[in-house]
Design a protein that fits this description.
With 236 residues, this protein is an all-alpha fold. The chain is 68% helix and 0% strand. Helix 6 runs antiparallel to helix 7.
Amino acid sequence: MPPEPSPNPDPPPAGLPGPPPVPRPRSGLAVAVVLGLLAAAALWAALAGVGPARLDGAVLAEAVEDRSRGLTEAAIVLTNAGSTVSMAVLAVLVGIACWWRGRRADAVLAVGTMAGASLVFRLLKIALDRARPPVADRLVPATDESLPSGHATMSIVVIGTVVVLAWAGRGVAGRVALVAAAALWVGGVGATRVYLGVHWVSDVLAGWLVGAAWLALCVAAWSWWSRRAARRPILT
């Protein structure tokens, strides 16, 4: 009689024929290092007033000039939907869904990446202590430090995690749609922070890079763990 097939040690997500493919840890770590260096450069440039920070005043002035009632209402809705609290709730819901389906490592990635990002950007804000744009230009309240943008950081981390977890089992069209939708969301949330006058554009750029670097680091750790778990011998 042919030997019985070994049971799958880690059940696949609903709709997938097997365990999801994950990126190589070394590749993810290399990406994290590059993004981390870019994030550090963006933070320094914002504080020093060089590079993209030279456009801060002009971009804010253009945003103030282009304001309208309808655009402002839409920006407030989008900025609230992309807030740090909203992104945290989304990450927890994704984590619960993954845990319920038996994808424990994915659940830890979703919740842990979000929680770590929240701590990272908060510590950076305190350490760098950059002032926000003038109160007269703000359309929504904001009381903490400006650099980096928490909205930008959390949106790219949480939405990026969703893209990573939804990547497996999709064709080219599905993946392009995922990336395009994520880019539109993250870009739109970041743009609202400048439009509403609560962040300089260099805050947002730095937030995106900080979030991307943190996400890449967490995905590298997740892929290492997933590959390690897949190589464990199966006890019968």
